[in-house]
Write a structure and sequence with these properties.
Length: 572
């Protein structure tokens, strides 16, 4: 790929003749590309021009050359594929710290930790860096790859002088060591809280594994490690640089606070490697209103997105609440009678079971004050209750183009999809079969065809938003797109082939679909004049390569607002 500055006369010489150009010259033009515009009026193009931070013209290379002036930067794409910047519509960006920092979490993904011995060794090494009494935290372990969940006995081998907490790849299950259990005063006599559970040994003593709301009790048992504001800002900036290297130009933080919104406004702005929308949690709505913050607050860099609610649990953690039992033996009863964990209210400090009336009140209270609502819900039994609440709120106070969302909507049926379409909801499905297909096993093969139902929803005209749910799965759009296209796990098993989509559909979901889901389709999501100049240059065309090689496509260049924020020579 060639970047160069050419004066107008230099371009004339290259062309052999000069044509009269537009009244203004572009700041940036990209020529000789294979541009997937995601614009229905011009699906493919060769070139485009940028002035300031917006696209000003899209067309053929010969048409766009006319926009070159004396100070124009020209990128010769040399036939490479260009798409709009990818928009991750539901993720959890957190600060990233150097591995040597006591603040860094321990990466427990299967590629890093292949066995329980590896996991204990990684935690032991971390204990040498962290002062006694301060947290050691690990993330993204997978019980299905390790063979089981770690227990407090495993973690105690690493340290009993540090509080240790590991988060499962789902984020809805975890495990703590004895230090944390003592601090939380969780014993064999401790009852499971509403909406959660502690796994137990044969004598009833907790083994350290927690599920859903029970994990909150353990995580809050020890004060957080002190972190400076500057550490957090720099950590977030590292994270967004990583996202940019994968082609993500807009991230939607799915579960922030007003304080987190303020932090993003410090960390992100003109020149940043990406943009952010924050889904503030439902318990902070009154704080937002008191501060005069309403929907759409912010600018093109940091903006308030939907309000985030919870009604339900986890697919990959196998805690989602279902109408029919899981295809697994309940270890407590020896029967196939496990339906998941019923949802609990997460708004109150003290967890309580979430009734239909509670949910109705929550949804209407957010809808009534004009916010868009995005509610985490995975199991069909959870989703059915949520649909009832949305229907009641919209009947009581109709609002056109509300774009309320269901986050994940993992296990559905035709009736659920029909009701979602009727209510004009947006669905933000998971696209993580590559990493977590094996977690679908316990739901039973008869359900796979209606899990992550991207194809069915798109065929019905239901808006779908692309997302990684990072760190549940990797914030790598090419891998997520391959997962949508192939429905194939890393082990090579296909789950629900009827929900496969085309590469073109997956790209659209990850661009215009995500932009629509946060009311930004007028300013991003496609390469067309007037929109923000956020785009990526890829090493290959996702619509042409073999579908099981989409994940291997490299992001060569990421541009945000007309400025190059990431470059790589790999694959060029």
């Amino acid at each position: 790929m060639k970047f160069r500055h050419l004066g107008l006369w230099g371009m004339c010489l290259a062309l052999g003749a000069c044509q009269s150009g537009p009244d203004i010259s572009a700041d940036l033009v990209v020529l000789n590309g294979n541009v997937i515009t995601v614009d229905d009026t011009r699906p493919r193009a060769e070139a485009f021009a940028v002035h300031g931070d917006k696209f000003i013209a899209v067309g053929s290379t010969s048409e766009i050359r006319r926009w070159v002036g004396g100070s124009t930067t020209v990128i010769d794409a040399e036939g490479r594929t260009i798409t709009p910047g990818f928009i991750d519509a539901h993720m959890h960006p957190r600060p990233t710290y150097p591995d040597s920092s006591p603040l860094a979490t321990v990466d427990l993904r299967p590629a890093t930790v292949a066995s329980m011995d590896d996991l204990i060794a990684a935690l032991t090494a971390k204990a040498e860096l962290v002062p006694e009494g301060q947290w050691i935290q690990g993330v993204r372990y997978e019980d299905t790859k390790l063979g089981r969940h770690p227990t407090r006995a495993d973690l105690d081998q690493a340290s009993t002088k540090h509080p240790i907490y590991l988060s499962h790849s789902s984020g809805h299950v975890g495990v703590a060591n004895s230090f944390v259990l003592r601090a939380a005063r969780v014993t064999r006599n401790t009852q499971d809280p509403p909406g959660g559970a502690f796994d137990r040994e044969g004598n009833g003593a907790p083994n350290g594994v927690c599920r859903e709301i029970a994990c909150r009790i353990l995580r809050q048992a020890v004060p957080a490690t002190p972190i400076t504001r500057q550490d957090e800002v720099e950590g977030l900036q590292r994270t967004f640089r990583m996202f940019a290297s994968n082609g993500i130009t807009t991230s939607v933080d799915a579960g922030g606070t007003p304080e987190k919104l303020a932090l993003f406004r410090e960390a992100v702005g003109p020149g940043s490697p990406g943009r952010v929308l924050v889904m503030v949690l439902a318990e902070y709505v009154d704080d937002l209103l008191a501060a005069g913050i309403g929907t759409g607050f912010g600018d093109e860099w940091v903006k308030l997105g939907p309000i985030k609610g919870h009604h339900g649990n986890s697919l990959s953690g196998r805690t989602a609440w279902l109408f029919e039992p899981y295809d697994m033996v309940n270890p407590e009863t020896g029967e196939r009678d496990y339906y998941g964990i019923p949802p609990a209210s997460r708004v109150a400090d003290t967890p309580t079971a979430q009734t239909q009336s509670d949910l109705d009140d929550l949804i209407f209270s957010i809808h009534e004050v004009g916010f868009q609502v995005g509610v985490h819900s995975n199991g069909d039994r959870e989703i059915s209750m949520l649909l009832e609440s949305f229907e009641k709120a919209l009947a009581r106070l109709p609002r056109p183009d509300h774009r309320h969302r269901i986050e994940h909507a993992s296990v559905v049926n035709p009736a659920i999809l029909e009701k979602a379409k009727e209510l004009e909801l947006v669905l933000a499905f998971h696209s993580y079969v590559y990493e977590h297909g094996d977690k679908m096993e316990e739901f039973g093969a008869d359900r796979w065809g209606m899990m992550h139902a991207n194809r069915s929803a798109l065929d019905m005209g239901i808006p779908v938003a692309g997302n990684s749910d990072y760190g549940v799965s990797a914030a790598i759009p090419m891998l997520r797109i391959q997962s949508m296209v192939t429905r194939t796990s890393a082990e090579g098993k296909v789950y629900g082939p009827e929900q496969k989509v085309s590469p073109e559909q997956a790209i659209r979901v990850w661009t215009m679909g995500s932009a629509f889901s946060v009311f930004e389709e007028d300013i991003k999501g496609s390469i067309e004049a007037g929109k923000l100049a956020d785009f990526v240059i890829l090493s290959a065309d996702p619509t042409v390569v073999p579908v099981d090689e989409i994940k291997d496509i490299v992001v060569n260049t990421t541009v945000v607002g007309g400025k190059v924020v990431y470059e790589s020579n790999q694959g060029s």
